[in-house]
Amino acid sequence: YLGLDWKSRRQGVVEARAPTRPAVSPGRDAAEGQVVGVSASFLRTRMMLEKVADTDATVLFIGESGVGKELFSNELHKLSARPHGPFVPINCAAIPENLVESELFGVEKGAFTGATQSRPGYFERAHGGTLFLDEIASLTYSAQGKVLRAIQERKIERVGGTRTIPLDVRVVAASNVDLAEEVRAGRLRQDLYFRLCVFPIVIPPLRDRRDDVPLLAAHFLKLFANRHRRDVVGFTRRAMDSLLAYAFPGNIRELQNLVERGVIYAESGSLIDVQHLFTGFERLPSQALGLTGEGRIGMARQDGPTPSGHPDLANGAEALRRAEAELYRSALDSAQGNVSAAARHLGLTRARLEYRLKKLGPLT
Q1: Tens-binned pLDDT, residue by residue, of the chain (364 aa)
Q2: Rounded to whole angstroms, how far apart are CA atoms 317 and 311?
Q3: Where are the beta strands (DSSP E) in the chain?
Q4: Does the global pTM surpass 0.90?
Q5: 143 Cβ contact partners less than 8 Å away, ≥ 6 residues apart
C-alpha cells in the first residue's frame, strides 16, 4: 500500500512512474481491487476490518456512494477464514421488485412460466464464502423479512421448491443512507437492522482523507497507464494541488475517473496537468491545497512559480519523508515497538515495513 515511488523533480511535478509498454494487452488489472491509503481515518477503518475479518460476524459498511464499500467488502473476504470460497456481490437496488426472491434464493423448475430449469440464487452461489448485499435498504419490506430469516436460520428454500437448503454464508451488507432513519421512516425492518448492525464500519469520504489523494492518484495512474498503453509519467504540481483542493462529491470513484481521463488526454511522455483532469463541469475552489512544510495537507502556497518555471522542490520531498516517518512512528508506538503488529495496522508485510524503515533512516 505504501510502495509507490513518489519523487520531486526540478520542473515542478509530482511523479509516479508507470510502465511504458506492457508485454501483453491487459484485461482487468488486479491492482484495481487494492485497498489503498495512509491517512489516519483510513487506517482506523482498516484496523476495524482486520479485527472482525477472521470471525463470521455480520458486517455493515456505511458510507457515501463511491467510497469503495464493495472494495472493502472484498478485502474483508480475502482476510477472512474463507478466502478460497466465492465472493458474491449483489446490488439490491438493481434487482426488479418482482424478481427479488428468485434472484436471492433461486428457482425450482416449473415454479412459474418461463422457469424451464432449476437454478441457484445468490445465497446458494455464495455457499462457503461471502455474500455482499449492497444498498440493502432498497429491498422491499417483504424481501427484507426473507433475508432476515435466511441470515438467522442459515437455510433457504428456492421459489417453487419444498426442499430446505442449508447455508454456510457470511453476510456483509452496505448502505449509503442512514439505516436508523430508514427504520424510523418505516422503510426498513427494525429486526433486520439490528441483525445487520453487529459490527458496523464507517468508510470515510475522500474529502476527509485528503492525505490519501496523492497515493490513490499514483495508484490509478499506474493502473490506467498500463491498461490504456500510455506513457504518462506523473502529475504537475498544479494538477496535484487541484486534486488536493477538490471536494470529490463522487469520492474515490470520481478520482479514478479523473485520473483515467488525464491518462487519456495527456500526450505520451508528458505530465498530467489541470486541463487534462477537469472538464469544466467540476467546481474547483479558488485556493488549492498542498503539502505544507510540516508534511501535512494544508493550503498550498500561491506565490510560488508555476510548473513551467524552475521551483526547488527539495522541501516538498523532505515533507513527504517526514510525513511517512511520522506515520510509521505512530504505528510503532501503538504496537509498542512490535514491527509485525505495526505492519499489520498499516496494511503492509513486515518485510515491506522494514524496507521502508531502512530506506527512511532514523525516525527523527
Answers
A1: 333 333 333 333 444 433 333 323 333 444 556 788 889 999 999 999 999 999 999 999 999 999 999 999 999 999 999 999 999 999 999 998 888 888 999 888 766 666 667 888 999 999 999 999 999 999 999 899 999 999 999 999 888 877 899 999 999 999 999 999 999 999 999 999 999 999 999 999 999 999 999 999 999 999 999 999 999 989 999 899 999 999 999 999 999 999 999 999 998 888 999 889 987 666 665 444 444 443 444 444 443 333 333 333 344 455 556 667 777 777 787 778 888 887 777 767 787 788 778 777 776 5
A2: 12
A3: 6-8, 13-16, 59-62, 87-91, 130-134, 155-156, 165-166, 170-175, 199-202, 234-236, 271-272, 289-291, 297-299
A4: no
A5: 100, 101, 104
Judge contact between 70 and 254, C-beta under 8 A.
Answer: no
